[in-house]
C-alpha cells in the first residue's frame, strides 16, 4: 500500500526540539517586543531584519547540534511530507522528502514570491555572536536600506504572511496526497493549511487515515484510526 506520512513537531520533540505550539514552543516564546506570530512574518523581516534574524538564529542554535531520532530513521525510506524546518529527516537519510515549510539550514535570495530561486546552505556558522546584530545583517547581505530584492538573503522558511509556492514543492506535495492509498499523520496539531489540504483529499477519495499523537485531535473523517501514543511507540508496533 502506498502510504503517505505527514509529520509535525511532535516527531522532532523526542530529539529535544520544542514543539511550536506547546507550552515550551517557539510560538509561545517571543522576543521582548513581539509575539511569534508577529515575528515570523515577511513584514517583520522587511521592517526589522535584525530582530527577525536574531529570533531565527536562536531557533537554529537551539537544535543545530540535535540529531535524528528513531522515528526519523524509520521514516527515511518512506513517502514523507514534514511540516518541520529542522532538517532532521535529511540527516536521517531520507533522500526525497518534502519539507513543506522550508528548512532553517538553508536560505534563498529575498525575492518576490513565486519567482524561481535557488536554495543554498545557510551561513549561520559564520555568525559572530560577540557582534550578533551586525554579523547577522552582514551574513544576509542586508544594508542600512533594509532587505533588498534579489540582493539580500532570507531564511528558507515559510512565514505567516506568505503562501505555499513551488519553492516549497506544493504541487509535488499535492500529487503525493493524490497518489496515496493511506495517509498517516504523526505528531501534528492539524493547525496548518497542509494538513487541512490532506484531510480534504482523504475525504474526497475516501482514503483511510491514521492519527498518531498522545493527545490526538479529532478529525471529521469516516475512515480514521487514532493511536494515542508517541511516534516512537507507534513505529515499535509497525
In short:
With 238 residues, this protein is of the alpha/beta class. The chain has helices spanning 9-13, 36-39, 42-47, 49-63, 70-74, 88-91, 132-139, 170-179, 193-205, 231-236, and strands at residues 3-7, 79-82, 98-99, 102-109, 120-121, 153-157, 182-186, 209-212, 224-227. The chain has 2 domains: 1-17 and 68-101 and 164-238, Rossmann fold; 19-65 and 106-157.
Name of the CATH homologous superfamily of the largest domain: TPP-binding domain
What is the annotated CATH architecture of the largest domain?
Answer: 3-Layer(aba) Sandwich
Provide the structure class: alpha/beta
Into how many domains do the coordinates divide? 2
CATH class of the largest domain: Alpha Beta
How large, in whole angstroms, is the Cα Rg?
18 Å
Strand arrangement across the biggest beta sheet: 3-2-1-7-8-9
Average pLDDT confidence is 90
Helix content: 25-40%
Described by its quaternary structure, the protein is: single chain
- Tell me the overall shape: globular
How big a fraction of the residues is strand? 15-25%
Largest sheet: 6 strands, parallel
Distance between the termini: 14 Å
Order of helices and strands: EHHHHHEHEEEHEHEHEEH
Number of strands: 9
Domain Deacetylase sirtuin-type: 1-238
Organism: Saccharobesus litoralis
Enzyme class: transferase
Keywords: NAD, Transferase
Describe the structure.
With 238 residues, the chain is an alpha/beta fold. It folds into 2 domains: 1-17 and 68-101 and 164-238, 3-Layer(aba) Sandwich (Rossmann fold); 19-65 and 106-157. It has helices spanning 9-13, 36-39, 42-47, 49-63, 70-74, 88-91, 132-139, 170-179, 193-205, 231-236, and strands at 3-7, 79-82, 98-99, 102-109, 120-121, 153-157, 182-186, 209-212, 224-227. α4 crosses α7. The protein is globular. The two termini are 14 Å apart. Mean pLDDT is 90; it is low at 21-31. GO terms for molecular function: histone deacetylase activity, NAD-dependent; NAD+ binding. Residues 1-238 form the Deacetylase sirtuin-type domain. This is protein acetyllysine N-acetyltransferase. Its EC number is 2.3.1.286.
Amino acid at each position: 500500500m502506498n502510504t503517505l506520512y505527514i509529520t509535525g513537531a511532535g516527531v522532532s520533540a523526542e530529539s529535544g526540539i520544542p514543539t511550536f505550539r506547546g507550552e515550551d514552543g517557539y510560538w509561545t516564546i517571543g522576543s521582548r517586543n513581539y509575539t511569534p506570530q508577529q515575528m515570523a512574518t515577511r513584514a517583520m523581516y522587511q521592517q526589522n531584519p535584525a530582530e527577525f534574524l536574531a529570533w531565527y538564529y536562536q531557533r537554529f542554535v537551539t537544535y543545530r547540534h540535535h540529531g535524528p531520532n528513531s522515528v526519523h530513521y524509520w521514516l527515511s525510506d518512506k513517502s514523507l511530507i514534514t511540516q518541520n524546518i529542522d532538517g532532521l529527516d535529511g540527516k536521517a537519510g531520507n533522500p526525497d522528502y518534502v519539507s513543506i515549510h522550508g528548512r532553517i539550514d538553508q536560505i534563498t535570495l529575498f525575492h518576490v514570491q513565486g519567482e524561481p530561486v535557488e536554495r543554498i546552505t545557510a551561513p549561520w556558522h559564520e555568525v559572530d555572536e560577540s557582534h550578533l546584530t551586525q554579523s547577522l545583517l552582514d551574513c544576509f547581505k542586508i544594508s542600512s536600506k533594509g532587505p533588498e530584492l534579489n540582493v539580500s538573503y532570507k531564511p528558507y522558511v515559510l512565514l505567516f504572511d506568505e503562501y505555499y509556492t513551488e519553492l516549497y514543492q506544493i504541487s509535488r506535495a499535492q500529487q503525493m496526497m493524490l497518489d496515496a492509498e493511506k495517509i498517516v499523520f504523526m505528531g501534528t496539531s492539524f493547525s496548518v493549511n497542509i494538513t487541512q489540504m490532506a484531510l480534504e483529499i482523504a475525504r474526497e477519495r475516501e482514503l483511510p487515515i491514521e492519527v498518531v499523537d498522545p493527545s490526538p485531535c479529532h478529525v471529521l473523517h469516516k475512515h480514521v484510526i487514532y493511536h494515542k501514543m508517541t511516534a516512537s511507540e507507534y513505529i515499535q508496533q509497525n
